[in-house]
Design goal:
Layout: H1 2-24, E1 40-42, E2 46-48, E3 57-63, H2 68-85, E4 91-98, H3 102-112, E5 118-121, H4 127-130, E6 137-141, E7 147-152, H5 156-169
């Protein structure tokens, strides 16, 4: 009888966590959707709006400085993605620090030495247009401004898929 109660409890907990995970993974922006309207303001890198990005392939990367998987993804952006596309006039990279200020990102970048811009989103105003939680997140928009790829979390395989999708979108 005791093992039946424990088994029932374990099953209930598993269903709760599966349900919670499914709820967390709901995307606010889906494949085919147009890029949300937002303004990024950085004392270091200036202002960016979606109208500045018309006709470009745009990667929106959402991260936090304390997030382990984010660190892995940003290291890959620094070593692979940014060197390949930084001079491509048809591509734009927007790396956005969720809940971080310009001062936070400047201090963080002094340690990391990233050469790509880091835009602050101190009140989650931009992040909340894309999702409620979970980082890192990547959203790739095609030249027509529509979402063509999205990912949550980081794996080398997923990052390679992102690179392949960028390459295809730039053709």
């Amino acid at each position: 009888m005791k093992s039946l109660k424990i088994g029932s409890l374990i099953m209930a907990l598993m269903l709760f966590f599966v349900g919670a995970h499914a709820q967390n993974s709901v995307e606010k922006v889906k494949i085919g959707d147009t890029m949300p309207q937002f303004t990024l303001n950085s004392d270091v890198y200036g202002q960016v709006t979606p109208s500045d990005l018309k006709g470009k392939v745009v990667l929106v990367s959402l991260f936090a400085t304390w997030c382990g998987p984010c660190q892995k993804e940003l290291a890959e952006v620094q070593s692979t993605l940014y060197p390949k596309y930084k001079d491509n006039e048809n591509f734009r990279l927007l790396v956005i620090g969720r809940e971080h200020t310009d001062a936070d990102l400047t201090k963080y970048n002094a340690r990391k030495k990233f050469t790509f811009p880091l835009y602050p989103d101190p009140k989650r105003e931009v992040f909340s247009l894309f999702a409620d939680q979970s980082i890192p997140r990547a959203y790739l928009f095609g030249k027509d401004g529509k979402l063509i790829y999205t990912s949550t979390g980081y794996t080398p395989e997923e990052f390679q898929k992102l690179m392949d999708t960028i390459e295809e979108a730039l053709k």
